[in-house]
Amino acid sequence: MTTDNLHLPDAEALFNDLKAQMAPAIAYDAKLIGVYSGGAWLADRLAAELDGEHEVGYIDVSFYRDDLSTSGLKSNVRSTQIPFSVQGAHIVIVDDVLFTGRSIRAAVNTLFDYGRPASVQLAVLVDRGGRELPIAANYVGAPLIVSRDLMLALSKDDAGKFALTTEPWMQR
């Protein structure tokens, strides 16, 4: 069941804002690593639309989360795919929503299993606050206040257009 989504910003506009922030700031050869699934969609599109030579990889943080014992394992676990060397690279982790910081902590832990990058930055479509860990994004489409009992979800249609919705938060 989806709740009232009338007050959510246009995800396409947020994507364009995020891209505009990143364009002059990231390294020409920065590698983009999307966190499944929304971050992966964003990373793919950013790589296609930003100037530069941006290779793309994907991270599934399921087994690296520190709350796995309480939240359970998602049914859609995917394999991490990083088809380039992380060692010495400039990396931008891309995710759809930054909330507690636990997914990003898990993404960084996963990333370091592949090598030691020269730098790691974070780009998110939405920062909804509510941090439980000291994690901050370098690039943010927009900050957005969302009730803690709602999950903010990014979707992508067949044409590749993004949309944001809210759903009741459920322990998985």
SSE topology sketch:
Layout: H1 11-22, E1 31-35, H2 38-49, E2 56-59, H3 68-71, E3 90-98, H4 102-112, E4 119-127, E5 139-143, E6 150-156, E7 162-168
Parallel strand pairs: 1-2, 1-3, 3-4, 4-5
Antiparallel strand pairs: 6-7
In short:
The chain has 172 residues and is an alpha/beta fold. It is built from 4 helices and 7 strands.
In CATH, the architecture is 3-Layer(aba) Sandwich
Distance between the termini: 15 Å
The tally of domains stands at 1
CATH topology: Rossmann fold
Indicate the proportion of strand residues. Answer: 25-35%
Q: What is the string of SSEs from the N terminus onward?
A: HEHEHEHEEEE
Descriptive overview:
- The chain is of the alpha/beta class and 172 residues long.
- It has one domain: Rossmann fold (3-Layer(aba) Sandwich).
- The chain has 4 helices and 7 strands, in the order αβαβαβαββββ.
- The strands form 2 sheets. A 5-stranded parallel sheet has the order 2-1-3-4-5. The protein has a two-stranded antiparallel sheet with strand order 6-7.
- The chain is globular.
- The protein starts with 10 loop residues before the first helix and ends with a strand.
- The model has no long low-confidence stretch (mean pLDDT 90).
